Amino acid sequence: MVAWKLQQVEIRNLYVFLVLTTSLLVLECSHRKLIFDKGSKVYLLPRNVEEPLSQSDVPLFWHIPKSGGSSIKMTMIRCFNLNVTIGYSLFEDPSLIPFVDSIMSVELFKTLTLFNSNQHPRIFTMIRHPFHRIHSLFHYQKYATHEKYYYFWSILSKGQHTFLDFLKHNKANQNFMVSSLTNIPNHRLEDYHVEQATQILANNFLIGLTEKFNTSVHRFQKYFEWNNNDTYTEKCIEHFAFLNPVNKNPHKNYTKLSEGNKEWEILLETQKYDLKLYENAKEIFQHQSIMFHSLTEII
């Protein structure tokens, strides 16, 4: 009798466990869907990257810091004679959007909310290996006295004399790309957010790679039908791509970042989602080459 009652208790406990587990799984799936649905609403406005351009479409460059964005900006202005507007200047008056040639913004989500069904953003970006991007950002912040947030950076990095110190004590910029694309803070990111971010890039972004800067610029040029390939334009692109990139670090007192060293091992953990996204972005870049079949890769 006692054994039978114990068996009943065990069955009842197992039933409760299964109900709770199922409920948690349903809740987790709903939570994932809710997060993505909430975040993906803004991605209803951008055109699919493979759709033909419309006259009302507005080029939007998502600027990922230290990935070549400043050089892209100057290339658009100097080489293609475009009116480039920084995103935050439109936050107070989005009605100016139809009058700009291109928008450049670090704050992707906030900028996307400025658009409506009459103006669709065409998003393009430059992506760099996240480890080298963070490494470059650390050194840039130490010398960029002209930057608006230099004082903040100098306070933030006080006592962090080496890149290793910086990685150990500074959580800023961790998984910046995945966090920005999904609108999810870094501490809540999971593997499935990389899948969502990859889907967003593949559907809505024309991808450029920092290590393929020249090819990327020519893809942007062909895609948005900027200017013609005259001698001046080619020399201008070469200037910003190779001869004088904007905000390039002077490489003075640089600590070398190499695979296998302590810094690299830390980055494998702290930037793991952005690393996965970067590898996926390289595949998307390769796939998008079919849209530029008449454009050979330019070194």
Structure description:
This protein has a single domain (45-292), classed as Rossmann fold. It contains 12 helices and 5 strands. The chain has helices at 2-40, 69-79, 108-112, 130-143, 150-156, 163-169, 176-182, 191-204, 213-224, 231-243, 262-270, 272-287; strands at residues 58-62, 84-86, 102-105, 121-127, 205-209. The protein has a 5-stranded parallel beta sheet with strand order 2-3-1-4-5. Helix 7 (176-182) crosses helix 8 (191-204) and helix 8 (191-204) packs parallel to helix 12 (272-287).
Task: Present the secondary structure layout.
Layout: H1 2-40, E1 58-62, H2 69-79, E2 84-86, E3 102-105, H3 108-112, E4 121-127, H4 130-143, H5 150-156, H6 163-169, H7 176-182, H8 191-204, E5 205-209, H9 213-224, H10 231-243, H11 262-270, H12 272-287
Parallel strand pairs: 1-3, 1-4, 2-3, 4-5
- Radius of gyration, CA atoms, in whole angstroms: 23 Å
Beta percentage is: 5-15%
Annotation, overall tally of beta strands: 5
Helix content: 40-55%
Low-confidence stretches: 2-6, 14-38
> What series of H and E elements makes up the topology?
HEHEEHEHHHHHEHHHH
Give a brief rundown of this model.
The protein is an alpha/beta fold and 299 residues long.
State the main characteristics.
single chain; five-stranded parallel beta sheet; globular; disordered N terminus; Rossmann fold
